[in-house]
Amino acid sequence: MRFLLGTHRPHWLALLDVPLFVSDRTLRRYKTLPVASCDWACDSGGFSQLSQCGTWACGPSPRDYAARIRRYRDEIGRLLWAAPQDHMVEAKILSRTGLDVARHQELTVSNYLELRSLDAELPFIPVLQGQSIEDYHRCADRYEQRGVDLAAAPLVGVGSICRRQHTAEVEGIVRSLAQRGYRLHAFGAKTLGLARYADITASSDSLAWSFAARWQPPLPDCRGHRRCNNCVKFALRWRRKILMTIEKSGNNAAAAV
Protein backbone atom coordinates (compact mmCIF):
# COMPACT_ATOMS: atom_id res chain seq x y z
CA MET A 1 0.00 0.00 0.00
CA ARG A 2 1.26 3.48 -0.88
CA PHE A 3 0.96 5.96 1.99
CA LEU A 4 0.89 9.67 1.09
CA LEU A 5 2.03 12.05 3.79
CA GLY A 6 -0.33 15.01 3.93
CA THR A 7 1.24 18.46 4.13
CA HIS A 8 0.11 22.07 4.01
CA ARG A 9 3.69 23.09 3.14
CA PRO A 10 3.87 22.77 -0.68
CA HIS A 11 7.60 23.53 -0.80
CA TRP A 12 8.16 20.08 0.73
CA LEU A 13 7.48 18.75 -2.76
CA ALA A 14 10.97 19.92 -3.73
CA LEU A 15 12.62 18.73 -0.50
CA LEU A 16 11.38 15.23 0.28
CA ASP A 17 11.58 11.84 -1.42
CA VAL A 18 8.44 10.33 0.16
CA PRO A 19 4.98 10.45 -1.49
CA LEU A 20 3.02 13.56 -0.48
CA PHE A 21 -0.61 14.70 -0.49
CA VAL A 22 -1.04 18.44 -1.10
CA SER A 23 -4.21 20.52 -1.39
CA ASP A 24 -5.00 22.81 -4.29
CA ARG A 25 -6.04 25.36 -1.67
CA THR A 26 -2.40 25.77 -0.60
CA LEU A 27 -0.82 25.37 -4.04
CA ARG A 28 -3.04 27.91 -5.78
CA ARG A 29 -1.35 30.75 -3.87
CA TYR A 30 2.04 30.00 -5.42
CA LYS A 31 3.14 32.07 -8.40
CA THR A 32 6.30 30.00 -8.78
CA LEU A 33 5.66 26.32 -8.17
CA PRO A 34 8.17 23.90 -6.66
CA VAL A 35 9.62 21.17 -8.87
CA ALA A 36 8.79 17.82 -7.30
CA SER A 37 11.48 15.48 -6.04
CA CYS A 38 8.80 12.97 -5.03
CA ASP A 39 5.53 11.49 -6.27
CA TRP A 40 2.43 13.27 -5.02
CA ALA A 41 -1.33 13.60 -5.33
CA CYS A 42 -3.51 16.72 -5.24
CA ASP A 43 -6.58 17.18 -3.07
CA SER A 44 -9.30 19.60 -4.15
CA GLY A 45 -9.87 20.92 -0.61
CA GLY A 46 -13.55 20.07 -0.81
CA PHE A 47 -14.17 19.79 2.93
CA SER A 48 -12.82 23.28 3.61
CA GLN A 49 -14.61 24.70 0.57
CA LEU A 50 -18.03 23.32 1.54
CA SER A 51 -17.54 24.06 5.24
CA GLN A 52 -16.91 27.72 4.46
CA CYS A 53 -19.23 28.36 1.52
CA GLY A 54 -21.69 25.47 1.40
CA THR A 55 -21.16 25.27 -2.35
CA TRP A 56 -18.49 25.03 -5.03
CA ALA A 57 -20.12 27.98 -6.83
CA CYS A 58 -17.95 30.44 -4.87
CA GLY A 59 -14.83 28.38 -5.54
CA PRO A 60 -12.93 27.60 -8.74
CA SER A 61 -15.03 26.54 -11.70
CA PRO A 62 -14.34 23.05 -13.07
CA ARG A 63 -12.57 24.67 -16.03
CA ASP A 64 -10.32 26.74 -13.75
CA TYR A 65 -9.63 23.77 -11.49
CA ALA A 66 -8.71 21.57 -14.45
CA ALA A 67 -6.39 24.31 -15.73
CA ARG A 68 -4.59 24.41 -12.39
CA ILE A 69 -4.21 20.64 -12.26
CA ARG A 70 -2.74 20.78 -15.76
CA ARG A 71 -0.28 23.42 -14.58
CA TYR A 72 0.68 21.34 -11.54
CA ARG A 73 1.23 18.29 -13.72
CA ASP A 74 3.39 20.21 -16.19
CA GLU A 75 5.33 22.54 -13.87
CA ILE A 76 5.63 20.58 -10.62
CA GLY A 77 5.75 17.16 -12.24
CA ARG A 78 5.39 13.66 -10.78
CA LEU A 79 1.63 14.10 -10.19
CA LEU A 80 0.05 10.71 -9.53
CA TRP A 81 -3.58 11.81 -9.51
CA ALA A 82 -5.97 14.57 -8.47
CA ALA A 83 -9.25 14.46 -6.57
CA PRO A 84 -12.35 15.96 -8.21
CA GLN A 85 -14.38 18.77 -6.68
CA ASP A 86 -16.44 16.28 -4.76
CA HIS A 87 -19.21 16.64 -2.18
CA MET A 88 -18.52 14.72 1.02
CA VAL A 89 -21.51 13.68 3.12
CA GLU A 90 -20.56 14.21 6.75
CA ALA A 91 -23.48 15.61 8.76
CA LYS A 92 -21.68 18.94 9.15
CA ILE A 93 -21.37 19.33 5.38
CA LEU A 94 -24.94 18.23 4.65
CA SER A 95 -26.16 20.80 7.15
CA ARG A 96 -24.06 23.48 5.46
CA THR A 97 -25.24 22.72 1.92
CA GLY A 98 -28.84 21.90 2.80
CA LEU A 99 -28.74 18.90 0.44
CA ASP A 100 -29.09 15.17 1.02
CA VAL A 101 -26.69 12.27 0.45
CA ALA A 102 -28.15 11.35 -2.93
CA ARG A 103 -27.74 14.89 -4.27
CA HIS A 104 -24.14 15.07 -3.01
CA GLN A 105 -23.42 11.80 -4.78
CA GLU A 106 -24.90 13.08 -8.02
CA LEU A 107 -22.90 16.31 -7.83
CA THR A 108 -19.71 14.31 -7.16
CA VAL A 109 -20.25 12.03 -10.14
CA SER A 110 -21.21 14.92 -12.42
CA ASN A 111 -18.12 16.92 -11.49
CA TYR A 112 -15.83 13.97 -12.21
CA LEU A 113 -17.42 13.53 -15.63
CA GLU A 114 -17.17 17.25 -16.36
CA LEU A 115 -13.49 17.36 -15.41
CA ARG A 116 -12.82 14.34 -17.59
CA SER A 117 -14.65 15.98 -20.49
CA LEU A 118 -12.50 19.09 -20.15
CA ASP A 119 -9.26 17.10 -20.41
CA ALA A 120 -9.31 13.32 -20.47
CA GLU A 121 -5.53 13.18 -20.05
CA LEU A 122 -5.58 14.74 -16.58
CA PRO A 123 -5.38 12.08 -13.84
CA PHE A 124 -8.64 12.77 -12.01
CA ILE A 125 -9.93 9.84 -9.98
CA PRO A 126 -13.58 8.99 -9.25
CA VAL A 127 -14.54 9.32 -5.59
CA LEU A 128 -17.30 7.45 -3.78
CA GLN A 129 -19.31 9.21 -1.08
CA GLY A 130 -21.73 7.76 1.44
CA GLN A 131 -22.68 7.22 5.04
CA SER A 132 -23.76 3.56 5.06
CA ILE A 133 -22.32 0.66 3.07
CA GLU A 134 -25.45 0.75 0.93
CA ASP A 135 -24.85 4.45 0.19
CA TYR A 136 -21.37 3.76 -1.16
CA HIS A 137 -22.64 1.02 -3.42
CA ARG A 138 -25.42 3.26 -4.68
CA CYS A 139 -22.77 5.87 -5.47
CA ALA A 140 -20.73 3.27 -7.33
CA ASP A 141 -23.83 2.32 -9.29
CA ARG A 142 -24.30 5.96 -10.28
CA TYR A 143 -20.87 5.96 -11.89
CA GLU A 144 -21.52 2.67 -13.65
CA GLN A 145 -24.89 3.90 -14.94
CA ARG A 146 -23.15 6.90 -16.48
CA GLY A 147 -20.57 4.78 -18.27
CA VAL A 148 -17.68 4.80 -15.79
CA ASP A 149 -16.07 1.38 -15.32
CA LEU A 150 -14.77 1.73 -11.79
CA ALA A 151 -13.12 -1.68 -11.84
CA ALA A 152 -10.98 -0.50 -14.76
CA ALA A 153 -10.03 2.79 -13.07
CA PRO A 154 -6.43 3.06 -11.80
CA LEU A 155 -7.77 4.24 -8.45
CA VAL A 156 -11.14 4.88 -6.79
CA GLY A 157 -11.33 7.22 -3.81
CA VAL A 158 -13.38 6.45 -0.70
CA GLY A 159 -14.53 9.74 0.83
CA SER A 160 -16.28 10.75 4.05
CA ILE A 161 -14.41 8.28 6.25
CA CYS A 162 -11.64 10.33 7.87
CA ARG A 163 -13.80 11.77 10.66
CA ARG A 164 -15.54 8.53 11.61
CA GLN A 165 -14.69 7.15 15.03
CA HIS A 166 -15.68 3.53 14.37
CA THR A 167 -12.86 1.77 12.51
CA ALA A 168 -14.87 -1.44 12.15
CA GLU A 169 -17.56 0.49 10.27
CA VAL A 170 -14.97 1.95 7.88
CA GLU A 171 -13.36 -1.45 7.44
CA GLY A 172 -16.73 -2.90 6.41
CA ILE A 173 -17.19 -0.15 3.83
CA VAL A 174 -13.70 -0.55 2.37
CA ARG A 175 -13.83 -4.34 2.23
CA SER A 176 -17.25 -4.35 0.58
CA LEU A 177 -16.00 -1.98 -2.14
CA ALA A 178 -12.82 -3.99 -2.64
CA GLN A 179 -15.01 -7.01 -3.39
CA ARG A 180 -16.23 -5.15 -6.47
CA GLY A 181 -12.68 -5.24 -7.82
CA TYR A 182 -11.81 -1.59 -7.15
CA ARG A 183 -8.30 -0.29 -6.38
CA LEU A 184 -9.10 1.96 -3.43
CA HIS A 185 -7.64 5.11 -1.95
CA ALA A 186 -8.86 5.72 1.62
CA PHE A 187 -8.97 9.47 2.21
CA GLY A 188 -7.61 10.37 5.64
CA ALA A 189 -7.83 6.88 7.10
CA LYS A 190 -6.96 6.62 10.78
CA THR A 191 -3.90 4.63 11.88
CA LEU A 192 -5.98 1.94 13.60
CA GLY A 193 -8.11 1.68 10.49
CA LEU A 194 -5.13 1.15 8.21
CA ALA A 195 -3.92 -1.59 10.52
CA ARG A 196 -7.20 -3.40 9.78
CA TYR A 197 -7.64 -2.91 6.03
CA ALA A 198 -4.29 -1.89 4.50
CA ASP A 199 -4.19 -5.32 2.87
CA ILE A 200 -7.05 -4.41 0.49
CA THR A 201 -6.25 -0.70 0.07
CA ALA A 202 -4.04 0.59 -2.74
CA SER A 203 -3.22 3.87 -1.00
CA SER A 204 -4.15 6.30 1.73
CA ASP A 205 -3.18 9.74 3.01
CA SER A 206 -3.18 11.61 6.29
CA LEU A 207 -2.32 15.02 7.72
CA ALA A 208 -3.04 13.87 11.27
CA TRP A 209 0.60 14.35 12.30
CA SER A 210 0.17 18.14 12.21
CA PHE A 211 -2.90 18.10 14.44
CA ALA A 212 -1.16 15.76 16.89
CA ALA A 213 1.92 17.99 17.03
CA ARG A 214 -0.15 20.99 18.13
CA TRP A 215 -0.73 19.35 21.50
CA GLN A 216 2.75 18.00 22.10
CA PRO A 217 6.03 19.64 23.06
CA PRO A 218 8.55 19.95 20.22
CA LEU A 219 10.93 17.10 19.51
CA PRO A 220 14.10 17.21 21.65
CA ASP A 221 16.23 18.11 18.62
CA CYS A 222 13.84 20.85 17.42
CA ARG A 223 14.91 24.20 18.85
CA GLY A 224 13.59 26.64 16.28
CA HIS A 225 9.87 26.37 17.08
CA ARG A 226 7.51 25.90 20.03
CA ARG A 227 5.39 23.26 18.27
CA CYS A 228 6.13 20.76 15.50
CA ASN A 229 2.88 21.14 13.53
CA ASN A 230 4.89 22.45 10.54
CA CYS A 231 7.98 20.34 11.18
CA VAL A 232 9.52 18.00 8.60
CA LYS A 233 11.26 15.93 11.27
CA PHE A 234 8.04 15.33 13.19
CA ALA A 235 6.12 14.50 10.00
CA LEU A 236 8.69 11.96 8.82
CA ARG A 237 8.95 10.28 12.21
CA TRP A 238 5.15 10.05 12.37
CA ARG A 239 5.14 8.57 8.85
CA ARG A 240 7.65 5.90 9.85
CA LYS A 241 5.41 4.89 12.76
CA ILE A 242 2.44 4.59 10.38
CA LEU A 243 4.43 2.38 8.01
CA MET A 244 5.58 0.18 10.89
CA THR A 245 1.96 -0.22 12.02
CA ILE A 246 0.89 -1.19 8.50
CA GLU A 247 3.79 -3.61 8.13
CA LYS A 248 3.09 -5.21 11.51
CA SER A 249 -0.59 -5.67 10.71
CA GLY A 250 0.36 -7.28 7.38
CA ASN A 251 2.73 -9.70 9.10
CA ASN A 252 0.09 -10.60 11.66
CA ALA A 253 -2.44 -11.28 8.89
CA ALA A 254 0.06 -13.49 7.05
CA ALA A 255 0.81 -15.39 10.26
CA ALA A 256 -2.88 -15.96 10.85
CA VAL A 257 -3.27 -17.46 7.39
What order do the helices and strands come in, and which of them pair?
Elements: E1 2-7, E2 20-23, H1 24-27, E3 40-43, H2 46-53, H3 62-76, E4 79-82, H4 91-97, H5 101-118, E5 127-128, H6 133-145, E6 156-158, H7 167-178, E7 184-186, H8 191-197, E8 203-206, H9 208-213, H10 232-256
Parallel strand pairs: 1-2, 1-8, 2-3, 3-4, 5-6, 6-7, 7-8
Short description:
This is DeoxyPurine in DNA protein A domain-containing protein. Residues 3-248 form the DeoxyPurine in DNA protein A domain. With 257 residues, the protein is an alpha/beta fold.
Question: Can you give a write-up of this model?
Answer:
It comes from Amycolatopsis nalaikhensis. Pfam families: DpdA. Residues 3-248 form the DeoxyPurine in DNA protein A domain. This is DeoxyPurine in DNA protein A domain-containing protein. With 257 residues, the protein is an alpha/beta fold. It has one domain: TIM Barrel (Alpha-Beta Barrel). The chain is globular, with a radius of gyration of 18 Å. α2 packs across α4, α3 (62-76) packs across α5 and α7 packs parallel to α8. The chain contains 10 helices and 8 strands. An 8-stranded parallel β-sheet has the order 4-3-2-1-8-7-6-5. The chain starts with a strand and ends with a helix. α8 links the parallel β7 and β8.
